[in-house]
Each structure stands twice: as C-alpha cells, then as structure tokens.
C-alpha cells in the first residue's frame, strides 16, 4: 500500500510540476499605448477596446500614432480614430496562446491520471510488450 501511495504521489508531482510557474506568474498591466504597439509588432491586431465612457469597440488595429490609433471595423470597414487618453483597456479577441496551452495541458493531465488510476486499480492488465508491471 505504501508503494502505491508513493507511486501515486510521485506521478502527481511529475504531472503538476509544469503548473508551478503558471500559478506564480502575474500578468503585467500595460498602458493602452504599449499594448497597441505590442500587438502591432506581433501582428495580433484583432482587439476589443473598452473606452472610458463604458462603450466597447471591436476591430483590427490598422495604424498607430503618438496620441492614438486607428481601429477598423471588420464588418463595415469603417475606420475609427481613438485617442489613448480615451481608452480604458485593450485586449485581444479569441483565446490566447496561454489559454490554449492550459486546455491542452489539462487534457493531457486528465488522460495521464485516468491511465494511472486504471493501472493502479488492476495492475495485472497493465502490460508493456509482454512485460507485466506489478505494484
């Protein structure tokens, strides 16, 4: 029993180790100008902009200047000039790469835990190329 418990705890430690840095990381809050420049450099121009008056605009950032940027509506093609002083928040649309990585990691962890539980439940059925693994 002690050996199974040790194996199970080591498996969880191995599986959960990659989550350490993700849990400790604190996202940095960028100014709207810095966020727009970063998105233009990375070519991630699809954004949702929340303005100080409470309204939200969606579209693509087409250009940036010293005092503001231009947002193009994807459906109508209408360009809107927005001053950085009027912007409360700029965020990307869709799932970020970090969210996608967490989803994939969660699926992998679930599959690994399920395989481990099944192996511990009935170790006689766990067979690798004719080698039986018994706990």
Write up what this structure looks like.
The protein has 135 residues and is of the alpha+beta class. The protein folds into two domains: 1-27 and 96-135, no CATH class; 31-94, SH3 type barrels, CATH 2.30.30.100. The protein has helices spanning 2-16, 19-24, 32-42, 97-121; strands at 46-51, 56-64, 68-72, 79-83, 87-92, 127-128, 131-132. The protein has a five-stranded antiparallel sheet with strand order 4-3-2-1-5, covered by helices on one side. It has a two-stranded antiparallel ribbon with strand order 6-7. The longest helix is centred in the last third of the chain and has 25 residues, at 97-121. The termini are close together. The mean pLDDT is 79.
Query: Could you spell the SSE succession in H and E letters?
Result: HHHEEEEEHEE
The SS-based structural class is alpha+beta
Strand content: 25-35%
- State Rg: 24 Å
Helix percent reads 40-55%
**How does the major sheet shape up?**
5 strands, antiparallel
Task: List the main descriptive attributes of the protein structure presented here.
alpha+beta; elongated; two-stranded antiparallel sheet; 7 strands; 2 domains; 42% helix; 135 residues; SH3 type barrels
What's the SSE blueprint?
Elements: H1 2-16, H2 19-24, H3 32-42, E1 46-51, E2 56-64, E3 68-72, E4 79-83, E5 87-92, H4 97-121, E6 127-128, E7 131-132
Antiparallel strand pairs: 1-2, 1-5, 2-3, 3-4, 6-7
